[in-house]
Each structure stands twice: as C-alpha cells, then as structure tokens.
C-alpha cells in the first residue's frame, strides 16, 4: 500500500502539491488523474524518493523509500520511458539495474520476454521507438518482481495491441494482490483499467472514489428529441410535468427522460419525431467538468490558428495569452 499524508511540494512560488492525503490499496488498479500541471508527476517522484517533500510524508507498506535496501524489490516504476542511456542495449540496461539490486541475470531474460522485447534485446536504446521505450521502462519496473508498481502515462506511444497488453498486465498484477498506481490523461482508458480513482487539480485532492461511484455520480443521461413541431412538443412536455432544454442543431433534451414514455407522449399528441435518442455524458466530459476550475493550461478550441481569423472570439483567446505550442501557464 502507498500512503500519503499531507504531502506538500513547493518549487519557489509554485505550490505543485498541496497537503495531499490518500491511500493506494493493494489488489486493485488505482488511476491517478488530473489536468496538465496538476502535480501528478511531482507526487510520483516524491513517492519514489526522487523529490524531497516540503512537508508531509509518504510511505510504502509502512516504510519510507529511503529505508528500502534494494528498492526494485519493493517498488517498480515507469516514470520517464526515455530515461535510458541511448548507447546502452536493452539487455545491458536491465542487467545493470538487476546487478545494482542483487537480482539474478535470469530475471533480465524473463522481463524481456514478458514485455515482448527479446528479439531487440541487443539493440541500442537510441534506435528504439517510443513504444519500445515504454516497454523497456515497464520491463525495468517489473525486474524486481515488486509488490508496488507505479506507471506514469504507460500507454503513451503504444499501438492498440500495446495498449491492450499494458491494460491486461496492470489488471493481472492487481489481481495477484499487488498495488498498482497509474497516471493517465485518458479517462476512457482508465475506465477500462482502474477500479479506483484519485483525481487532483492544482496539487489538491478533488476526488478519491471507486470507478463505479465516479460513473454513478457523473454520468448524466438525457433523451434527445428532434421534431418539426417544437411548440407542440414543448407544450406536451410541460403538461406532463417534464422540462426540456435546448440541445444542439434545434433539438431538445429531457434530462433523465424515459425513451418509451417520451415516444408514447409524442404519439398521443400526434407529434412527428425525427429523432428520439438516448444521450450519455462520457466519463471524459465528467472528468473535464470535475477539473474545470483546476485547469492550468488552456489551448484554443482545436481550430487551426490563422493570421486573419474571421471571428475574433476563438482566435483572440488563443493569441492574447501568447501561447506557444498551445500551452500557456496562467498564474
Ligand atoms: N522541477 C520543477 N521546478 C519548478 N517547478 C516544477 C518542477 N516540477 C514541476 N513543477 C511545477 O509543478 C506543477 C506540477 O507539475 P507536474 O509535472 O507534477 O504536473 P503533472 O500533473 O504531472 O502534469 P502533466 O500532466 O502535464 O505531466 C507545475 O506547475 C509545474 O510547472
């Protein structure tokens, strides 16, 4: 189990992590979510003893990282996939790690096999693709067969087969009773992998709950109706005590509406329908809503930035902040 108690990290004026307390239990995958700059990597670095907390503490099965003799046997982590000497082969990189933690050479072959890198084990890391680098990072994390595993954005750069592989790997490790803590920006991927979620924003804890609870609390449902007789529809809904909100493209949406009853109601009033469809807010939307106030970096709306934008509304917010690469820090 990983336990954080009032963990705090300050870099100059930036409060990167702000009195964070939560537990990551064994036996399940815990997802760690937050917008860019929320403090996820800083938190993970403190868990690994790579950054010293300004205040508070973090323990791994009751012990500080610094107290662990051969740390790879207790905790394995993928923080930055490219943290490998470019001139070293995958095999040599793992062998060096194994020897410094008194792990047998045979373990190197085992993890290379487990991550599917056996055939390129003698290639230098500089020639590795992002996906191969991720796999090598995961191999390093698995090397000591540790009880606790921590992955920072593990699916970055992986193809669909690789994503499925890492998802099953994490689930398998959790099912075997390990503690698995994984950060990601991909809510949809988390929904498939994690049973528990910790959400942070601007260094603070926003939510610490089960995935089932998160889905229950955040998935809004509505029925979308499109009709050439909107006035009759609104009248009929009002009479039935239902409220409709305007939806996109001239549609109306009835929150928590029942598809069959709404269809019956329209038929009763002889209202022609061109659409009657259930709508479900995605987890992505729910996550964006939860973290909206904590988002530190804003980009434009995804439309290409052109010199003379016909409408100033979107172009101005992009340019006025003086963004580079669509990232802008607002303090
Ligand atoms: N070494 C550092 N020196 C100064 N500020 C830092 C340092 N590391 C992180 N920060 C700041 O701390 C805050 C949290 O950053 P962190 O990288 O932990 O966030 P994150 O949630 O991992 O973001 P991302 O999703 O973009 O990777 C940011 O404001 C960042 O600029």
UniProtKB/TrEMBL annotation:
Keywords attached to this entry: ATP-binding, Nucleotide-binding, Transport
Domain named ABC transporter: residues: 2-227
Pfam families: ABC_tran
Region of interest: Disordered: 302-331
Biased composition (Polar residues): 316-331
GO terms assigned for molecular function: ATP binding
Protein family membership: Belongs to the ABC transporter superfamily.
Protein name: ABC transporter ATP-binding protein
Lineage: Bacteria, Bacillati, Actinomycetota, Actinomycetes, Kitasatosporales
């Amino acid at each position: 189990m990983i336990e954080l108690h009032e963990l705090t990290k300050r870099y100059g004026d930036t409060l990167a992590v702000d009195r964070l307390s939560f537990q990551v239990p064994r036996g399940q995958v815990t997802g760690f979510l937050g917008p860019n700059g929320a403090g996820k990597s800083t938190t993970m670095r403190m868990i690994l003893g790579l950054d010293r907390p300004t205040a508070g503490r973090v323990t791994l099965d009751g012990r500080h990282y610094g107290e662990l003799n051969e740390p790879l046997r207790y905790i394995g982590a993928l923080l930055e996939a490219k943290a490998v000497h470019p001139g070293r082969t995958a095999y040599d990189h793992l062998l060096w790690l194994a020897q410094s933690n008194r792990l047998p050479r045979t373990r190197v072959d085992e993890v290379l096999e487990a991550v599917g890198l056996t055939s390129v084990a003698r290639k230098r890391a500089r020639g590795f693709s992002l996906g191969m680098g991720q796999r090598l990072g995961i191999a390093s994390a698995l090397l000591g067969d540790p009880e606790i595993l921590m992955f920072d954005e593990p699916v970055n750069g992986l193809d669909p087969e690789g994503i499925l592989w890492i998802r099953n790997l994490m689930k398998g490790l959790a099912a075997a009773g390990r503690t698995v803590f994984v950060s990601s920006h991909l809510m949809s991927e988390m929904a498939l992998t994690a049973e528990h979620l910790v959400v942070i924003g601007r260094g603070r804890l926003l939510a610490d709950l089960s995935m089932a609870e998160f889905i229950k609390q955040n998935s809004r449902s509505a029925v979308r109706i499109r009709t050439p007789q909107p006035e009759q529809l609104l009248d009929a809904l009002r009479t039935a005590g239902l409220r409709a909100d305007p939806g996109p493209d001239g549609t109306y949406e009835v929150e928590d509406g029942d598809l069959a009853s709404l269809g019956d109601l329209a038929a009763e009033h002889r209202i022609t329908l061109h659409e009657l469809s259930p709508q479900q807010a995605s987890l992505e939307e729910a996550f964006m809503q939860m973290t909206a106030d904590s988002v530190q970096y804003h980009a434009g709306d995804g439309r290409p930035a052109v010199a003379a934008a016909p409408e100033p509304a979107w172009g101005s917010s992009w340019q006025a902040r003086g963004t580079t690469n669509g990232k802008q820090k607002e303090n």
